[in-house]
Design brief:
It is built from 16 helices and 19 strands. It starts with a helix and ends in a 7-residue tail after the last helix. The chain is globular and about 70 Å long. It has two domains: about 1-20 and about 30-80 and about 380-430, Roll (Urease, subunit C, domain 1); about 85-375, Metal-dependent hydrolases (TIM Barrel). The strands form four sheets. A seven-stranded parallel sheet has the order 11-10-12-13-14-15-16. A five-stranded antiparallel sheet has the order 1-19-18-17-6. The chain has a four-stranded mixed sheet with strand order 4-3-2-5, covered by helices on one side. By secondary structure, it is α/β, with parallel strands linked by helices. Keywords: Signal. This is Amidohydrolase family protein.
Length: about 475
């Protein structure tokens, strides 16, 4: 436990450092370690399990390794969870954003992420940084497609105009199904396993005639359908940005594999709350088509609305979540909060009343596996990648415990801001739970001999004999052999 206590002290110092003007050191990874985690508790996707866990060569194994670098007796007090995943953000898709936010992901226990609108040149600068063992694993979308007057042009252009839109290279502009076919070779050449298509207020074509709406709309449903057809023909998958319930239905009709945004995260046109309500029939269609939905409920906090309007949107979000869950739609945790990570989305979903075991499963199992389907992650069984967080308490009882992980381990490597800790962690070490036990046993054995040789004095001074036994009893508690308190 000395190792865990030391890390707890380091965690406290990190928290204090966050309020200090001096910059923190970046996270570094130790060499891959062999671990023995005795008396552990971990979340298996449904409930808390108990037992011992072993790690060797970056994966969980069934038996204790021959050489153990880190041996910890957790005494059924801490809880292990798999790392969190962020299915929708944009803050790691440029070198500048990476420098600002990559360590924040590790700090908050988010080891997996999807960036949904990068350009190939910018992502090429980031990918070598993402290859570090102390970095989050990131899936990049480098084909972000909207209409010539569509979202997010108003957000990314200093002065949105048709001329400025045509000159930029981050976002692909497609105005019709015919253009989708003509431009498809260039779109495919941008790389990646996914493309992103933007649908925004697709049910209101009259908005295209309003100058103030430039850069805030999206593809026509027919164009989105043609892009999806082209993508699927070449083995690519499609994630669709949506704003309204009508956009959601249009994305399903197009055949999108995933939908980014639960309708109701924003109401920039001050529309009735019912505009964002997903019907039970549409939810059932999403389930039949196995279309995943990225939640992004936390993004609602970025838009300042009157209290009544904000409350109405939150109620729509709650209803939409309930209908999608009842239909069996796969939900993925994503925040779309540029200055945040999936952790802010977890708290937003918790506030909406999502069952905590379900919420934790979505964040630690379903979402990571959706982002990286070829890997064995989000599990503690033998053969699973040994990536986990150690929390101070049970997150099913107290979600706030997610806000301060005590340890971060990625594929068997300890992640730390202290270079000397990362460098020395691979040295073989004995458990603090074992060595004192031997000493205590020796004391007991010596005490037994003493009692045998001087039985009469011990009887004559029973009070002293009892006091002499107290240190051994206290030592047994300190080694974890006594029952947990």
């Amino acid at each position: 436990m000395r190792f865990l206590i030391a890390c707890l002290a380091l965690t406290c110092s990190f928290s204090q450092a966050q309020t200090s003007p001096s910059p923190q050191q970046p996270y570094q990874a130790s060499a891959p370690l062999s671990w023995e985690l005795k008396n552990a508790r971990w979340f298996d996707g449904q409930k808390i399990q108990r037992g011992s866990l072993y790690v060797e060569n970056g994966v969980f194994v069934a038996k204790k390794p021959a050489k153990v670098n880190r041996k910890m007796d957790l005494r059924h007090q801490q809880v292990l969870i798999n790392p969190l995943a962020e299915a929708h953000n944009h803050n790691l898709q440029t070198a500048w954003g990476w420098g600002q936010f990559a360590d924040k992901y590790i700090d908050e226990g988010v080891f997996y992420a999807a960036m949904l609108c990068g350009d190939p040149a910018g992502v090429a600068e980031v990918q070598p940084l993402a290859a570090s063992p102390a970095a989050p694993d990131v899936s990049f979308v480098t084909a972000c497609i909207t209409s010539p007057d569509g979202y997010p042009l108003a957000a990314v252009l200093p002065e949105p105009s048709p001329e400025a839109a045509a000159a930029q290279r981050q976002i692909v502009l497609v105005g019709s199904p015919e253009q989708a076919r003509d431009q498809w070779p260039a779109i495919k050449a941008r790389g990646g396993a996914w493309i992103r298509v933007v649908l925004a207020h697709s049910e209101r074509p009259e908005l295209r005639q309003q100058p103030g709406m430039f850069g805030r709309l999206g593809l026509t449903p027919e164009t989105a359908t043609e892009l999806t057809r082209q993508a699927h023909a070449d083995g690519l998958r499609v994630v669709a940005h949506v704003e309204t319930a009508a956009d959601f239905a249009a994305a399903l009709a197009a055949g999108a594999d995933a939908i980014a945004h639960l309708p109701g995260y924003a109401n920039t046109l001050n529309e009735p709350a019912g505009t964002f309500a997903i019907s039970e029939a549409i939810a059932a269609q999403a389930a039949r088509q196995r279309t995943a939905v990225i939640t992004t409920t936390a993004a609602a906090g970025l838009f300042k609305l009157e209290p009544d309007a904000q409350a109405a949107l939150r109620e729509v979000q709650r209803t939409n979540l309930s209908r999608l869950q009842a239909a069996g739609v796969a939900l993925l945790v994503g925040s779309d909060v540029f200055v945040g990570t999936a952790r802010v989305e977890l708290h937003a979903l918790d506030d909406l009343g999502l069952d905590r075991a379900t919420l934790l499963r979505l964040a630690t199992q379903d979402t990571p596996r959706a982002l990286f389907p070829g890997r064995k992650i989000g599990c503690f069984e033998p053969g699973c990648e040994a990536s986990f967080l150690v929390l101070g308490d049970d997150p099913l009882t107290d979600m706030d415990t997610l806000d301060m992980p005590l340890l971060r381990v990625k594929q068997g490597r300890l992640l730390t801001r202290l270079a000397e800790v990362a460098a020395s962690s691979s040295q073989a070490s004995a458990s603090t739970a074992d060595v004192p036990v031997k000493k205590a046993a020796a004391k007991k054995k010596g005490s037994a001999k003493s009692k045998a040789s001087s039985k009469a004095p011990a009887k004559a001074s029973g009070k002293k004999a009892t006091q002499a036994g107290k240190p051994a009893k206290a030592q047994t508690k300190a080694t974890g052999k006594a029952k947990p308190r």
